[in-house]
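Weekly modeling sync, notes
Attendees: S.R. (lead), two postdocs, one rotation student

Agenda item 3: backlog of single-chain predictions. S.R. asked that every request posted to the team notebook include the full sequence so nobody has to chase files. The rotation student volunteered to paste the first one in as an example of the format we agreed on. Action items at the bottom.

Example entry:
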Amino acid sequence: MECRSVSQKATVTPADRRHCVEALARSAQSWSSYSGYFRESTRMCYAYQQLNDIDLAKDIYQNITEEKLRLVQFLLRREQSFQKNGQQLSASIEVRYPNGFFQRR
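Predicted structure, as returned to the notebook:
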């Protein structure tokens, strides 16, 4: 077929494409196949894009979930540290002021 030489080229020019499409148009069967595949290609691209978008959304959701988990773990560690420091401070105050009140000088 006339397009075979074009398919073997490293780079295809617009003129090469035009020549190939004109060759397809001369044959009713080839044109019908080309036209059908061309219509299907847009549907297939749309379907693949949807699948890609779904995968992307899943990846984003997973990343956000993992980030929220790290944030909750950080906040928990910080709260535990605050509680420990508060207990140490309370113990320190009781050692200095066992009666529970401050004495004025």
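Discussion: group reviewed the output briefly. Helices lie at 4-7, 14-26, 28-96.
Action items: rotation student to repeat for the remaining queue; S.R. to check formatting next week.
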